[in-house]
Amino acid sequence: MKIATAARIVPRNALVWIIISQFALLAPHLGRLPLWVVLVYLFAAGWRIMVYQGRWSFPGRWVKLGLIAAGFAAIWLSYGNLLGLEPTVALLLTAFALKLLELIRRKDAYVLIFLGYFICVTGFLFTQHLLLVLYSMLDILLLTTALVALHQPGEHRFRLATVRLPAVMLAQALPLMLVLFFLFPRLGPLWTVPVKSHAARTGVSDFMQPGDISSLSQSDEVAFRVQFDGDIPPRSELYWRGLVFSVLENGAWRSLKYADIPAREWRARRQEPVGEPLRYSVLMMPTQQNWLYSLRYAQSAQRSVMASADFRLYSPVEIEDQLLYRATSWPRTPLELELSAWRRRTELALPAAGNPATLALARQLRAASDSDADYVTAVLDHFNREPFVYTLQPPLLGEDPMDQFLFRTRRGFCEHYAFAFTLMMRAAGVPARVVAGYQGGEINPVNGTVIVHQFDAHAWAEVWLPGEGWRRVDPTAAVAPERIELGLEQALAGEGSFLADSPLSPLRYRGINWINMARLRYDALTYRWQSWVVGFDSQQQYQLLEDVFGDIRPRVFIAVLFASALVVLLPVAWLLLGRRQRHSLDPATKLYLAFCVRLAARGIVRAAGEAPADFARRAALEQPALAPWLRQFTHEFNQLAYADREQDEARRQQLLARLRSLLRQPPPA
Amino acid sequence: MEAVARRLRGRFGNWVTRRIPPARSVTLDQRRIFILPSRAGLFFGLLVILILLTAINYQNNMSYALAFLLATLFVVGVLHSYANLSGLRLHGVAASTVFPGQQSEFVLRLERGRRQQHYALRLAWPDSGDAVVNLVDRDTAELRLYLPVGGRGWYHPGRLLLESTYPLGLLRCWTWVDLDLRALVYPRPLSSGELPGVAGDRPEGAAIPVVGSDDFYGFREYRPGDSLRQVHWKGLAKGQGLQSKHYVGYADRSLWLDWELFSGLPTEQRLSHLCYWALAFERAQEDYGLRLPGLTLAPPAVSTSWTGC
């Protein structure tokens, strides 16, 4: 083995910084990782510290190979594969911990630190939330500190002050980074990459059973934020359509699959817009699903947003990262005045058996009504008149769930009412379907966005009436109108079940003004961050460049890039290198130069390279009156500058003071 | 291929010599400092490209930001690496005289510029071991490097490498300076059995050619007219200027080592024998004189200069 020279070993200070940054990097991944990864970190750090204290030795080659094999096996067991994003990140993090066990030379430390930078990136792949990004800045600072500590040989004690230089350097790097960030062209993906596993799907699913949405309502996560161009419509009008469930199968509603739809029905039919349009942009959090949320009859000019035949918007690719899209809605537009035969058949289809009592009630109510519209009112009246309860804690339903719900339990959440209502419509021959999405939202007074949380998830119904098209009917409103007018929290005020599982959610403390204000301010900041920085794409970039520079040509672009690099780096260079030049004259020389300036003012100019003594002699000849002063100053200056370099500080100061006073009092010419 | 490489190296050597002429003291400035990415720096570049590819493929803006931050950190690092070396003064202090096959000790002194801290300064000659010093909280540092020397004569160690990868290790900042130091290498002592002509007891008092100059008294500045024999060559070699040795007193009994004692042998061998005997006399604390062609040193010519020929 080559003996490590002094420059090639890892100073202890660097070792400590590396271990600190390792744990700091692990923290944001904790929620996604199996517990044993944490144990690997503790194990590796513990072993390395024992080595550092000289009690243990580094593991041998076979031990290391064994550990690597065990790591792979453990990831295989935890995730079932090695190729998705999560197992890859877990693998990286495990390797990152184990590499500590062979951290001997500087080379190893480079591998570790560079791997650490890359692990920061993997964190961004999961979330680019403002807090995570700020935290990652800390990680990068720690890693850079380790890198600097690595090049301070002989530092064998942990030093906090090491962090200063990397902090300065990162601060100096920040402006140019921003320039590059905003100017660097955004390209499309070059090849497909492993995606996140689908275990973490959030939000409304394309499948609805009683109980699904009430479980979603326990979450205070933000589903999306909406910014309206004009006024925000009243919250009772904010029905964010996401999914349309047209098929009732095995006791659950689901949306139509691609294969269920005949080719001629695929395309969304254009409707004639009626009324004033609402323009808005939606910033959606990743869902790992395809569908988007919009108000009734929405259109979007964006190519990444498509419209379906049941008037929804969707994205052809799953939403892996946050998505910002613009849409325009005409809520008053009648939808599908003519229903195709296939559509009618589909929206009327019922399972062959099940819920016989519900079907009987439906037929009975329809028989008592004059028209389909009357029948709708009659069913809503039924919900309103009978003792139905709106609750987040509905009882479990068994066989024939709607029979149980309508005639026995009578306690349900929105999906129960939507389910029962749609079933009764179809039973009476009225085309109907369940629509799932979100209802309402919280208006943030700070920036005027509508924040839609997961607990705003809602299900309602649409019925098709002749001459009117699809009409939205919300049976929940018949039972608990405050849910629609005021929101879930008010609707459940008596029950106390709002966010019962998250006692620390700031949303529970909306009553306390300053907490609420802080939360809303933070949300406004998040919106700005997510839409402007995280969502910065080629479109926004083009817009920005056009706004700032007008016409964009490649030459201008490159010139701007270089000019900004210069503008940003020159101050740094000046700070580092320029200042030294100015201070490089010692005080005695400065005084002498001042002396020369005084004499030059009297017409005696010192020649280049003329020694002080020679100059004094010449000057004395030219102006004899000055001779004693000249001689004394020159003598003292020589004393100070040349005579005795090792003289003590007190004497130097004394001489300097004398020179200064001499300079101040030249004899009259 | 090799010829081309050699020529290139020669060209580079000439260019460096023009750029950084030999001097006892060198202050490092932009003419003398070179910066290129180190091997770790190249890997760092790969890392940045990898992060950029990740950013492009995942359309991930924060990864873009990190890639740009690291790239810019590298650029800022150029300035900091340069600042770490800039302003440093290097002094060649001394080189010890040695026998062939030994290692000469070269003493160097580093003096800091206005900057408070200079870290991880690695100094080495191509053939020497290296020394790594930090110049932190002190103004100067003295360090010693040991170099295996060649044959008899003046040994020039060539250009001294001063390099540092501080602060990030991604950039290697270095300079090649010629501190104009040389080490004196004595002839290799070679035993010759009996010293011819010394076996007999010869009262040497009368044989001393320069009367009144046998007892070493001290040095004085060389004046035109002083005998070349009196010049203190060793001091000159050490850079102390031209000085004459000043002798007073009277002739004494002493031994003479004469070039002609070993006539018929090749020059190097003659010198080796003379050296051997000189060492032998020194060990025995005998006074002795030395007669070489063109140089005569009267006894007691302790530790003599061996380079005259």
TrEMBL record, chain A:
The chain crosses the membrane at residues 9-27, 33-50, 62-79, 85-102, 109-126, 132-151, 163-184, 556-577. This is DUF3488 domain-containing transglutaminase family protein. Residues 406-477 form the Transglutaminase-like domain. It holds the Pfam family DUF4129. Signal peptide: none annotated. Keywords: Membrane, Transmembrane, Transmembrane helix. InterPro entries: Bact_TGase-like, Papain-like_cys_pep_sf, TgpA-like_C, TgpA_N, Transglutaminase-like.
